[in-house]
Predict the 3D structure of the following.
Amino acid sequence: MASLNVRAALLSVSFLVLALGAWEMSTQPPAAQESMSEYEMLMGGAEQESRVPPPSAVIRLAWEELSNPFYDAGANDKGIGIQLGYSVYRVLTGYLAAMAIALPVGFLIGMSPLMYKALNPYIQVLRPISPLAWMPLALFIIQDSDASAIFVIFICSIWPMLLNTAFGVANVREDWINVARTHELGHLRTALTVILPAAAPTIMTGMRISIGIAWLVIVAAEMLVGGTGIGYYVWNEWNNLDLASVIFSILMIGVVGMLLDLALGKAQRLVEYKE
Amino acid sequence: MSKSFLEVDGLSKVYPDGQGNEFTVFEDIRFSLEKGEFVCIIGHSGCGKSTILNVLAGLDEASSGNLVMSGKEVIGPSLDRGVVFQNYSLLPWKTTLNNIVFAVRARWPSWSKEKVREHSERYLKMVGLDHALDRKPSQLSGGMRQRVSIARAFATQPELLLLDEPFGALDALTRGVIQDELVKIWEETRQTVFMITHDVDEAILLSDRIFLMSNGPNARIAESVKVDVPHPRSRATIFQNPAYHKTRDYLVDFLVNRSGAALPEDDGSPKFVEPAKGMAKPAPTPTEESAAKAVNA
């Protein structure tokens, strides 16, 4: 009997083949039945009905795009690598800015019940706001579309990090705090050598949720602000009615999102501990 | 009255009971410890033993009374008072060695890396764990974890070592082995130790004196029982000493029949009892200390 992994891989591949096969079959153009009428010839023999492109067309396009991902032929014709690069840059910038605020404030809220009670109402009101709702305000205040997109990423990734940090810090086991106290550690050393490592797995979980949300939001944000980025690319190809490109970029969004999550997952495993 | 190493005077702990009244766990706790003494405290659950220990550790505050150690009032936790908790309280993200290094570095911040490491390894060796330096606590058995915890406490060489039922969570066989180890380390270091236990045999094996607490609420330390068994002791041979049985009978009788109504002396200090008075003689080499005490008695 083959190992579980091998069997799972076989099953995965057969699902893929089945799905692609069904897709390919259902999207074939109808065979020409008779010679074209004069009108049809005048119209260049164009199909009357538009169709989702078959997977073979998408794969062909993907091959083309991926073999030259970084070309730049003007504002509306850039390689997929460049577009993804813009998006990743915006996500990471907004994400790091959120981290710089969320971790210290989360520590503060987690360690001080007073601060928790004082700030909690604001957090509860601000947290459920769709990050895109901030966009008009951001555009008006910041007056820069790129920075506004980054701000939207900042505002959407701050909450999971903030709340998880506060939760992790507040729930560090009393015993470990007592160990710090009986060893006469000061506040800062207790925070860095006991509370931080103890809360790190919870904090990393928040960071992982945040990067996922940030990647979801960047696509929508770039559709709004335009110019560059994978979100803009999807919308631009839709305007071009190039559905093969749309499907291809959807897949690329998924792949990059997965890579971001994998990276955070690796980092999470580094700080995990078993009790 | 001459000043002892540790003087506990009129300690009490009062909680609000939730209905506007007050609930006194223990009151007017008075005792003193001498340097180098090993003292166990026994009492039924709910008499506040752990609270007393936490107050000594500085982790909890008494409602009234005061504590003086080496002529200084005890306020808050300090490295002068090491604690071994029942649940080990090792930092699970650190290796065995680094758990000790953490404590040693806190104790002597000016020491070099090598000195800290060498000191830490020495204490891990004392508890027989020099082969598990790089393992995480989760990879150790309960007994091994408690040894690390004991090594950590001894390594900081506190003036007073507080053990909160350190073997409570261990199975009987493991417990015996670690008790022997504790006896050995204590013979080597002669730390002053204050320990909570529920186990009468453990108390006799380890202590010079045993404090008996009456039941809560309003619990008191009613008696201070001298254990007239000479050092060095060993779990394998201690039961051959008639003083052991005499002491054991006395303790069990207290816990079963008398702990409900027992009271200390009128001045609040525990009644000093020597159930095996004079029986320590047949031991092969009575120490000077026990001989002197026998003469005084």
The first strand of chain B starts at residue 6 and ends at 16.
